[in-house]
Amino acid sequence: PLVTLFGMELGGLLSGAAFTEMVFGWPGMGRLMLHAVMTRDLYLVMGGLLMGAVLLLLGNLLADGLLYLLDPRVREPS
User: Where in this chain does the record put each ABC transmembrane type-1 domain (predicted)?
Assistant: First the structure.
């Protein structure tokens, strides 16, 4: 189902944003994380990774909720 794939993409938005920031020279999380890795700011790197993990979990939770609402096979006990 496409709903689960879209839920997984929420965490991947950070990597796409980082690429866009690098191409256009915009300030943002991607440039901040790259600078943190280059300067070995471990607390900032851990915070960015934690934020990405939380976004991935929230995306999966949202996708599971939408799948429950949209797919009647999931609601029925087997």
Answer: 1-75
